[in-house]
Design goal:
Helix content: over 70%
Shape: globular
Strand content: under 5%
Number of strands: 0
Order of helices and strands: HHHHHH
């Protein structure tokens, strides 16, 4: 986070927007947030279509939307955020397996957390999903940083 603070301080000092954009693009946390937002949009978009438009129940709509978002997240995290240098079919499968395994733990948190809030506490499904997703995003960054750490 100190690096991000330095980037912002430099921008405020020099007021060079191009330099700010280039600096932010090179920051893993900023890239993670950007692609995390995109992953979340994939998750919410699919959830909305399945639950609100098609009429699926919360649990299967949530499971499907999360699964699609995890596949999207693996690709963008490996390629753009952490710039994985893993090559070869088996090593990539192993890396993907670790990523999916980590996401399964947060999947359980999201599935049962949203269902608990909706079914037990009678909270709005969309609001519940937003709250649980904040916790999930933080946990996912920590797991991803370990999985994709530079060798």
């Amino acid at each position: 986070m100190k690096e991000l603070k330095d980037i912002i301080h430099t921008f405020l000092k020099n007021k060079n927007i191009k330099q700010l954009i280039v600096s932010l693009y090179g920051n893993a946390v900023v890239k993670y947030i950007f692609f995390g937002v995109l992953s979340t949009l994939v998750n919410f978009g699919i959830f909305y279509v399945l639950h609100k438009m098609i009429g699926w129940e919360v649990f299967p709509a949530n499971l499907t939307s999360i699964s699609c978002a995890v596949l999207f997240a693996y690709v963008v995290n490996a390629r753009f955020v952490f710039e994985s240098k893993t090559t070869g079919f088996i090593p990539i499968l192993q890396e993907m397996g670790k990523f999916i395994g980590a996401r399964l733990s947060t999947l359980l948190l999201e599935l049962f957390g949203v269902s608990f809030l909706v079914d037990t506490l009678h909270s709005d499904a969309t609001i519940s999903k937003i709250g649980i997703n904040v916790i999930v995003l933080i946990a996912n960054y920590v797991f991803s940083a370990f999985i994709f750490k530079k060798r």
